[in-house]
Amino acid sequence: MTINLKSGLTAGLMLLFMSFSLHAEWVEKRSFTTQDFELFNGQTLAEVKVGWQAYGELNEARDNVILITHFFSGNSHVAGQYEADGAIGYWDAIVGPGKAIDTDRFYVISVDTLVNQEPHNPKVITTGPATINPETNAPYGLDFPVVTIRDFVNVQKALLDELGIENLHAVIGASMGSLQAIDWAAAYPEKVERMVSVIGMAQADPWTVLNLQQWAEPILADPNWNKGDYYDAETPLNGLQQALMQISLQAMHPDIINATFPDHETLAEGPLHNIQSYHSEVNWLRERAAERALYADANHVLYLVRANQLFIAGMQEDLRSGLEPIQARSLFMPATNDLLLRPAMARKAHELLQELGKESQYLEIEGSWGHLDGIMSIESRAQELKEFLQ
Amino acid sequence: MTINLKSGLTAGLMLLFMSFSLHAEWVEKRSFTTQDFELFNGQTLAEVKVGWQAYGELNEARDNVILITHFFSGNSHVAGQYEADGAIGYWDAIVGPGKAIDTDRFYVISVDTLVNQEPHNPKVITTGPATINPETNAPYGLDFPVVTIRDFVNVQKALLDELGIENLHAVIGASMGSLQAIDWAAAYPEKVERMVSVIGMAQADPWTVLNLQQWAEPILADPNWNKGDYYDAETPLNGLQQALMQISLQAMHPDIINATFPDHETLAEGPLHNIQSYHSEVNWLRERAAERALYADANHVLYLVRANQLFIAGMQEDLRSGLEPIQARSLFMPATNDLLLRPAMARKAHELLQELGKESQYLEIEGSWGHLDGIMSIESRAQELKEFLQ
């Protein structure tokens, strides 16, 4: 466990590229562009360009489509393997031929979101503050409009429209992906047959708004942030790294952190004698955050934080009104030990749907990872997921 | 609840001065000074000066003493009322004539710790990086040595020695106070008859080390911090405020935060249209942190973080060896919903003491405040506490 966790975290901490299989299917990144994209808040983007990936074959009736929406630090690489570097998708354990999300049967699509955390990752295609603003020929910075989870959904819908896909057999997402999944079911009820929310929520409550803000504050405080205008100067790397330290730490339950460091030395000589020397775990977390920061962009993190803070499924004033139109059968799978999007949040959405007479199931994922059980322990619920998708 | 919480938080967020009674006993701050104070890490402080308060009367045998040790953001004002401003101590609900910690019977003492969070609070007397270094006639800054919970204990012991007090009927503390309490029992087993750990732990585990570090990072990143040398310049106020935002948020369970904002507007117009506009809760937390920062000192927060990171009861290499000498009867009272010092941490210490053949009890405090239930809901365990002290 110790070795697996540490090497997995070294490879990216959200375990995007952690390998569970050496024989995943090859997959390629594709690109989708659309013009004059209208945003939920009324503003318009002249051009939106995002990456996407697909698995399996679209059938003639075009009714075998499953959309998988990604989490905060993730991207469209949900499964399969890139030929160039061998990187394997985060849910390869459940997406593939004969797996829970069976690509022998379903055409599985996943799309990079707007304002993706890693615009500087060569394997991510996204549009956000780091994108060149066609009006100025310089990066948007804070001129980029505020975007919402609904806008992520509508970019995906534009892609599906172009592909001639009218209905989704299912939409499935973990964490921030679950926000997109439930909003899909609320926004386009007649198009969504099944909705799976993994480690998810239906509304950002005040605590979540405040907790997300803790990820933004170090960026806002970094003098190099310069109100978002840093693309031709020193970047706010320190603030970004602090944000990523917090994100990394909060995604994991204390038990898994503690199990990772069985040889923890409380009274370590360095920290005991020098206020500027740190416990080895602190240095480890800083190094992992520094690695994660390589491809990330500080403004993109701010915009992602905001999209999550503004989330309420259905984008109505109250959640009940937002969920009312849903026609999909729903399945909520929170992680028992999740301290970030706690099971109570998924249960609330599940119970509200039941009150509204909708079909909804609730099933927890057990594990010691906390929030990350939505990735690390998803295979333990493969059978139930497979049955739900029949 | 909403009104009480908000006004309570406005008055200081750790509820130090929140009033439960309009008829508390008057109490005064006193001062204690000692020279050539040897620290656990081998360094020496030429002079240590701290504040303290006392309640009740020391009996002739000097054997009716209860020491109360304070939490991270607290000070010696545990109960009673200051005549100057009417401020009431944080545990006034359980400390006073006829109360659980009965000052008609016990002589209760509480002492400001070294490196107290609020050296600029006129009601706090402490020695730390903001103190004038007699060798240079300037504030110590980072020349101040790293101090540990054991050093807090030894300052208290020096005061008791001066008062001619050889034994403690009990030592009781909440949160960081619980660290001092259990270390007292381990360091001076023959002097401590009873030990009460409220919302406490016996050892900082790796998760706690990393979580505490999140409070330090924004200070370290603030350019005004200047490696701790800011006493004749702009102070690292922004970093300090960020630290205090995190401390405030983590001390409270999501449920109490959410209950505080029943009118939360997820799709608030400001944040939806302007990336530099924030939800009202964010502004509220920032304002509270700004108020808390008035008396606080950034370096002191760093040194407090370190003292907690270095904590292992008994200050041995392993916890079992550290707890082995304890003779006190112990009582652990974690808060059921505490996400900061989780009940599992107190339970671990309790079970280890039982394994070692010591007398130990375990009793959770119920409530919706989370960590702060150790203050806000302590009265619900007044009877059990009173009986334990018989």
For this entry, give a set of tags.
homodimer; alpha/beta; 12 strands; cytoplasm (chains A, B); AB_hydrolase_fold (chains A, B); two-stranded parallel sheet; 390 residues; 15% strand; Rossmann fold; 34% helix; 8-stranded mixed sheet; disordered N terminus
Describe the structure.
Chains A, B: Residues 143-372 form the AB hydrolase-1 domain. Chains A, B: Keywords: Acyltransferase, Amino-acid biosynthesis, Cytoplasm, Signal, Transferase. Chains A, B: Belongs to the AB hydrolase superfamily. MetX family. The structure is a homodimer of 390-residue chains. By secondary structure, chain A is an alpha/beta fold. The first copy, chain A, is 34% helix and 15% strand. Chain A contains 13 helices and 12 strands. In chain A, the strands form 3 sheets. In chain A, strands 1-2-6-3-9-10-11-12 form an 8-stranded mixed beta sheet, with helices on one face. A two-stranded parallel ribbon of chain A has the order 4-5. The longest helix of chain A has 16 residues, at 206-221. The radius of gyration of chain A is 20 Å and the shape is globular. The two termini of chain A are 34 Å apart. Mean pLDDT of chain A is 94; it is low at 1-21. At the A-B interface, helix 4, helix 5, helix 6, helix 7 and helix 8 of A face helix 4, helix 5, helix 6, helix 7 and helix 8 of B.
